[in-house]
Structure formats: C-alpha cells, structure tokens
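protien #1 (seq + structre)
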Amino acid sequence: MKKFLYTVFLVFIFVTTVSAATTKNGVPITPNSDPQDKKVEVSCKYSSGYTISFLKLDRYETDGLYDQGRGIPDGIVPNMGEYLLEKGFMTADGYYDCPKYALYYVNENNKIDVIDFSNNGNFIQKIFTLIPEESSCKGACQGEQFSEGSENQWVCDYQSTILSETTMQTKYDGVNYILVDRDGYARYVKGTDIRSDCGDIFLDTATPGGDNFRSMDEDIRRISDLNTLKDLYNFLCFDDKIKGGIDYYCAGSCKYPNNKNNVCSYLKDKVNYQTGADETEVSLEICQNNEVKKSLRFVGRLLVVVKIIVPLLLIVFGFVDFGKVVISSDNEASNKAIKRLTMRIITGVVIFILPTIINFVFGLFPKKYHFIDCSECIFKPTSCQVED
C-alpha cells in the first residue's frame, strides 16, 4: 500500500511539474503522453477574442494556419516554416510559442483585420495583446521535433572582413538550412545556398532579408559561367564599382581572399567578352581545360627549377674561370675573366627574374583575367588548381 501511495505521489508531482511548464511568453505547455509523438498544436488568443492556431504534425510538415478557425490561404503564407520562424511562433531550434502582439487595422468596411505578429510592441499600428493563460501549446513544444538527426547538424560562425567587425552564422539543424544575419535576423534558406564547409559569403548589408547574400565556392577570377558572372555583377556592382553595403564574411581565414578586392571591372569585361560585346579579345577558354592546366603546371615547375639552377651554374662556372685566371697571374686573361663573370652574373639574374617580369607585363593588360589560369599555372605552379 505504501509503495502504491508513493507511486501516486510521484506521478502527481511529475504531472503538476510538467503542467506548470510555460513558453517564454507564458503560454502553458501540455506535453504529449507518448514521447515518440512529435506533434505540436498551438493556439494563441489575444485581447478582443482574436485567435490563431496551427498544427505542426512533425518538424517536416505543418497542417495549415487557422485564423478564428478559418484556414488562411496558402498564397498569403507561401512558406509556412519560414513564416512561423519570422513571426515568433517558433525558434530556429524548434521551441514553439505565441507572439506577444497581433497587429491589426480597420478596413474600409469598418472590419478589423489582423495583418502581422511580433514580439516587439513598439509599433504605430494598433495591436492586440496576447492572453497567455487562455492560449496553449500542446505536444512537443520544447525542441523535441528537432532533437533527432543531430549527428548531421552543423554551424558556421562568420566574421566580416570589409566593413566592420560584425558576425553572422549559417547552420543546418537536421532539417532546415538557416542563415542568421549580422542583425540577428534568422530565416530559412535553400541548402544549395549555404554549405557545411563554411565557404566565404558576400552579404549585402544595405538589403536586409530576402536575396541578399551569395556563397562563394571559388575565386571569382576563375568563374566562366555567363549566368553566374551576370548574377554576381548585378549583386556586387553599381556603375562598375562595389556597392556601398557589400561585406565579405569568412569563417576563420578566407578561402578565397582575392574576392575581397574590387572585381567589378573584371566581371564586366568577362561578361562583355562572353556576350560578344568585346570583339577584340582572343578566346583563351582552353585555359579552363584540366589537361592543358596540368601540362602548363609541369612547364611551370620546370621553369622554377631552371630559373634557380641555371643562374647558380652560370655564377659557379664564372667563379671557377676567374679562379683559374687568378692562379695563372695573367692580367689580360684576368680582365677577360672578370668581364665574363660579370656577364654571367647579369645573365643569371635576368633568367631568375624573367618569369616575374613577364607575369608583371601580363598584369598590365586590363583583360588579363581571361587567361589567368594559364599564366598562374606557368608562373605560380603551386597555386594552379587542377583535378589530378
């Protein structure tokens, strides 16, 4: 009997403790009796009796959003997950709640229409206030839907490199891809737009939300796809200069530091070249060929050896000849040996710096980027990107 009473007492304590749980905004939480049941049902009631509710079957599927019991058309809320996250009905890690305020206006028929939700009450518009004790969250309200699949989750923390010392973040929670911008605004994004390897990111700080970032998976100078070039130019540039609000974010050291430079003139030249607007440029798309780059890299490695070994041999042979003359004590031969040694030293220095001079001359051409792969594989073979 004592064991039975003790068990009843523990159950009572458990139930009262669980039933006392609330969301951040004070909405009572009633958990599912079955831990395997990941369903969440949220009902939010506001002053004047306005209510809105939704049923989240699991983290993958939402069964509609209902205003005063009536379903809201899909066209008004095209992306339910992003809408719930943006308006404060849920957090990025799966905690559900009711926003503190419902914003409304009185239409021309003198009817009240709720137009938005927020946890910030500093609005000019009229607002209804949440009545938390008359609202409810039933089910997996405290992140249970997102507890599975954690082994696949990842987070990338970024630091700005151009405008200011601000941070941003990208992450995958096992289901959703999320970008948290420098203002702390979180939104769902496509998995093809952010990557787990924490690649560099351009962010347009002057355009909050929406299509205001680009993930970079290569050096801009190596891009050859015309549509990608056009998209980057429109995103980054105005009047052939980098837009004022563009910032470049890196997770740790930048994977492609050259992208921080002003690349607008290059992008414009490359687009003009590919669209035929520039008829003077000779096509060197062969530089994009992997086998060609392998051959040029081999030439580049030989060139590195030649520019080191040949000058050294010239100088060594020159000193050997000069040594022989000194031993022989022949003044005329000595003068000739000095001249030969001087010429060999000059020749050695020229051979050593000649590749650098040629590369510098290439750099003076405004459209050098059209053959950057060729020149880099020859003159900087260690930086030549090939698929071995």
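ok now protien #2
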Amino acid sequence: MGEGILHAEHFTAMNIVLLAVAAIIILGFLVLILKSSRANKKIPLQTESACVSEIRHSVSGNAKNGQMGRNMNLGMPLERNMVIFRLDNGDLIEFSLDDHQLQKITVQQRGQLTWQGSKYISFTT
C-alpha cells in the first residue's frame, strides 16, 4: 500500500512540474509577442509608392478559436491572404491581410503603401 501512495504522490509532483514548464513556455511566448508589438510601435510609420506584385490565398491546417494560441479546433481551414508589394526601389515587402483589407487591392495596382515595422497599415490609390 505504501508504494501506491508514493506512486500517486510522484504522479502529482510530476504533473506540477509539467504544468510549471508549460506555464514558463507560454509566458515566454507572451513576452516575445509583447516585445514584438512594442518594437513595431517604436518604429516610425513609413509610406512609399508601391505596386501590388502578387496576391496569394493560402489555406492551411484548421482555424483556431480566438487569438493568443487557444487550441480549440473549429474544423475549418485557416485562410490567409498574402500580398507582396514592390517598392519603387525594387524591394519587396509581404504582408498578411484579412479579407476586409484585401477588398480593393488588385495585382499591378499602384498606390501609397503605409506600414510600421512588420505591420501593414494601409494601401491607398
């Protein structure tokens, strides 16, 4: 009987250690996300003349419920719209846009691209 109790205590201690490790990993990811967001905000807005070079619609995996890594599988494909802009100096910049942002953008369209760090702000013609 003593072994059974020891085994149950060991299992509980193992669960606590695993939960602590998982919490540290999740906290680490949250810190990285916050740092990235703050870094983008420190970078000034940039606006340059650009041309829409390519629009890709990709479907991958399953959509997740909500943000910040909630893992409730909704059983739906995750759709992303990737838009590649060519600046006048020849540089290419790629952004992921939602359907609303993509509505009025077409390939070969010229306009003013505004972004901040790695964050898309707008594209106006």
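The first strand starts at residue 46 and ends at 60.
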